[in-house]
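Suppose a colleague, Dr. K., hands you the sequence of a protein chain of 148 amino acids and asks what its three-dimensional shape might be. Before reaching for any lab equipment, you can write down a predicted structure in token form. Begin with the sequence itself:
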Amino acid sequence: MSTPEAHPDQSYRSYSVDDQPAGWVVGLSLLAGVLMIMAGVFNVVQGLVALFENEVYLTTPRYVFAFDLTTWGWIHLLIGLAVAVAGFGVLAGRIWGRIVGIAITALCMIGNFLFVPYYPVWSLLLVALNVFTIWALCAYDRSAPENT
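The predicted structure, expressed as tokens, is then:
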């Protein structure tokens, strides 16, 4: 652990490479990774249900983004797999996991928002889960020192 260097400005502190991230930093990282894996699994299930059991979802003929349920199934399946893979990247501490995770989770959130007419409560719950995931990915900083 490094000690603060003498400096006239008391708000200045020098950190060494040995400083470890604070507990809340690691906690947010873990939260983001787990939320991404959960959202990915939920989207994969949602996609598989749309592919194999079309009768589960409500069909709305006057919706602007009216895709075939099979198309929605493939969209949710592919986005869910991408979110889960990025979640494992976040858990492994990879920066690409955070960057890809934010982008893919945003796409997942948009996809679930557009899916609201077919299954409203489930879609809105996944939108909320995606909002918390993006917040957790953006809020933590791996380089934050332990004693801040």
